[in-house]
Amino acid sequence: MARKSACCRLNGLEISLIVLFLLMTIVSVGLTDFIFTHLILRNIFIICAPEEATPEEPSPSVNPPESPYLIGVGRADCTGPVADLPMMGYANTDQTARGIHTRLFSRAFIVDDGSKRVVFITADIGMVSQRLRLEVLQELKAKYGDLYRQDNVVMSGTHTHAGVGGYFQYTLFMITSKGYIKPSIQAIVSGIVKSIDIAHRNLRPGRIFINKGQLADSNLNRSPHSYMNNPEEERNRFVCTKHLLLQRIISFSANRIIYNLGYASYAFEQEKNIGFLPGEGPFVAGFSSSNLGDSSPNIRGPVCVNTGEKCDYLNSSCPIGGKKACIAFGPGEDMFESTRIIGENMSKKAKELYSSAKQELHGPVYAAHQWVNMTDETVPLNSTHTGRTCKPALGHSFAAGTTDGGGEFNFIQGDTDGDPFWDGIRDALLGPPSNETKACHQPKPILFSTGEMDSPLPWHPAIVDVQIITIGSLAIVAVPGEFTTMSGRRIREAVKDSFANAEVVVAGLCNIYTHYITTYEEYQIQRYEGGSTIYGPHTLSAYIQRYRGLARAIAHETIGELPKGPEPPFFDEDKLFNQVKDPIADVAQANTTFGDVLQQVNSIYKVGEIASVTFVAGNPRHSGDIVNKTFVTVERFHNDTNSWEIVHTDASWETRFHWIKGLAGRSQSKVEWHIPLTAQTGTYRIQHFGHYKQSTNNNTITPYVGTSDAFKVTKSFYYY
User: Fold this and answer.
1) What is the distance between the alpha carbons of residues 325 and 320, in angstroms, rounded to a whole number?
2) 3-class secondary-structure state, position 310
3) Is 129 one of the annotated active-site residues of the chain?
4) DSSP secondary structure string, 203-233?
5) Was 159 annotated as part of a binding site?
6) For the chain, does the N or the C end have fewer beta carbons within 10 angstroms?
7) Residue-wise over 560-592: b if at least 16 C-beta within 10 A, else e?
8) Who's near 358: CB < 8 A, 6+ residues apart?
9) Are the C-beta atoms of residues 566 and 370 closer than 8 Å to each other?
């Protein structure tokens, strides 16, 4: 009964939202508004802002300050290739892209106090890698000199598991995403830089407001056994906190289309940008990740799918079927509906806070950054003893997966013993971990001693970014991985000690990815998150020590005295492997040409139904750079002008573009339009745009267009 009460308190947590309400002054027009939106442990940090003045936005308070901030905002496509390339998030090489549900975007927010400037990026990607960050910074330096640097630019990923991979330089991540894939990383780099370019061009005077609120029914803690190992007095100091997390989904191996799990951004932007297609319009809302390490959006919780019984509390497995049968379910019938439901929860609360924000930020902006060798940090444990971090290693529980998606074979969560069978295979193939590394990581039984594996390149990073930016009394702590609920609390409290009356938020998955960061107590349980805490049991203590140092430097204005730290490597491209082959030439089915319709639409549909059409298609990778393009349009006919109006593209939630790979270069594209209940009655058509590569004529790339028959949409068949 005691266990049940404790878990109920944990799962009843609610989320505080922090909304940065940025009011932009437009020359001789007054002020418009921004929101800076970002997920954190118990806080969602939201950034929303119009790129230009929009008259419907609420007016600011009277008597604005004489020297407001300069504020800029931008949004740009960073989707990348959508066919035959690995996706990032589940370390599953079979999860290759096969189309688009929605486009992915980078959203940039710049704040300048007149002498110093900070930039926050939230990008619809799994996480920011070190390679990605370094390439972005290189491009920014080439364009802007020293204006945008490693210390004042924060890059955060939304943690979608439905975006492209291939943008890492360390061996473990390259193995699971088939290498370093230039088209994938180029698309993300270009999108991030372009979003900063747009924000830079849009800089104008403005004011910043913050707000808080509560959000429920959007997540639960997926590792309560680990969480409950934290000290009771510490747990009792907190009202149970839920942090939003849209990125984890059920049936992950079946997901093969690119889509943006940041549905909250989509919904908020669409409501504000009336008359604009998705990804367009002046209003930008960025929802980003935070300390989400032990959180799940599968709020119905895990059950044994074959019996309906509860899973084992300690290791999340079932008597029949093991961990694979223990699956957590979200609020919807599938991952798309769950994403929409939770995204709408977030968007609705964000809009409430947006319209009621009154607390204004004042004061200078600061940025502090260091590179740290996380394999060799010493931390005081008490007055007489110290601990240290370790060379990276992953435990057996890492291979077990979670209730959001179980791993293969007989690995289980909570394993502190290991398995001689798997250890023997590891030793034969990769070599055993050293005694020093095994002792350092106790009680983790090491599966992969990645810090001692350097072929063909290091398997994990040693040099890690730590960074804090502040805007007046708001401090944003940029952390390099997935911090658990309690880990994030401890980081916030440590930073807050240096800032009187400051609001401290944690920005997760920033600048470099280092897996998970648990508390020392959670680490002892060795569930998935503990097995994935790669620098050992004192990882969190080392980060707290470093972030305290950054916070003190900002508070005492001694940032210039901070050691820069050891710079991370930037490996030559010829040392980065790529296992992805170029696509072969396209071949149309017999007696067809590219763009021909193979399966036609029906003549009439009712709202709420799905219009579907299948075309003879080329490989979408032959379309090259797809920025500012679309594979799909849904168009409505206007009798008065005798013209077609585009009402949806492949960036729209209502459309789904599926690429069906055939044999010997024969492909099809299936386009679905999930007709919303709000759709206007009338005549519609669906178009598909693509390119095909010819096997002759020097592999010429040729565009094509496919067009469905016109069809009717009605509210009711009875009244049509």
Assistant:
1) 7
2) strand
3) no
4) -EEEEEEEE--EE-SS-EES-HHHHTTS-HH
5) yes
6) N
7) eebeebeebbebeeeebeeebeebebbbbeeee
8) 61, 209, 211
9) no
The region, left, alpha or beta by phi > 0 then psi within -120 to 50, assigned to residue 105 is beta
User: Which helix (H) or strand (E) covers residue 686, if one does?
Assistant: strand 682-693
Q: What is the pLDDT of residues 12-64, one digit of tens each?
A: 223 334 444 443 322 222 222 333 332 222 334 566 666 554 433 434 444 55
CA distance 542 to 66: 42
Sign, Cα dihedral of 502, 503, 508, 511: negative
Structure-token match 């419907």, residue found: 56
Residue 709 exposure: Cα atoms within 13 Å on the Cβ side = 13
Is 280 a known ligand-binding residue? no
Q: CA-CA distance, 45 to 64, in Å (whole number)? A: 24
Six-digit token pair at 618?
A: 């080329």
Q: Which residues contact 639 (CB under 8 A, 6 or more apart)?
A: none
Q: Phi first, then psi: give them for residue 295, nearest 5 degrees.
A: -110, 150
Burial class (CB in 10 A: 0-12, 13-18, 19+), 339: buried
User: At 711, is the secondary structure helix, strand, or coil?
Assistant: strand
Provide the 8-state DSSP code for 458. Answer: -
**Distance from C-alpha of 137 to C-alpha of 268, rounded to nearest angstrom:** 30
pLDDT category at 239 given cuts 50, 70, 90 is: low
Rounded Cα distance between 648 and 703, Å, is: 21
Alpha-carbon gap, residue 44 to 425, rounded angstroms: 43
Closest by CA to 684, choosing from 599, 596, 604, 598, is 604
For the chain, count helices (H), then strands (E). Answer: 14, 40
Tokens of 320: 């029949």
482 labelled ligand-binding? yes
Q: What is the reported pLDDT for 37?
A: 30
Do residues 438 and 446 lie in contact, with contact meaning Cβ atoms separated by under 8 Å? Answer: yes
Report pTM: 0.92
Residue 521 and residue 518: Cα distance in Å, rounded? 8
User: Which one is catalytic: 296, 347, 397, 669?
Assistant: 296
153-157 and 117-123 as β-strands: parallel, antiparallel, unpaired? parallel
Helix axes 485-496, 539-555, angle to 10 degrees: 30
| Separation CA 124–CA 122 (nearest Å) | 7
Residue 33 has a CB neighbour count (10 Å cut-off) of 25
Instruction: Classify 553 as helix, strand or coil.
Output: helix
Lookup result for tokens 């959001």: 404
CA dist., res. 64 & res. 366, Å (int): 22
- Torsion angle of alpha carbons 522, 234, 506, 511, nearest 10°? -30
Least confident span in 8-12, 50-54, 169-173: 8-12
Q: How many CB atoms neighbour CB 541 within 10 A?
A: 22
Facing residues of 105 across strands? 77
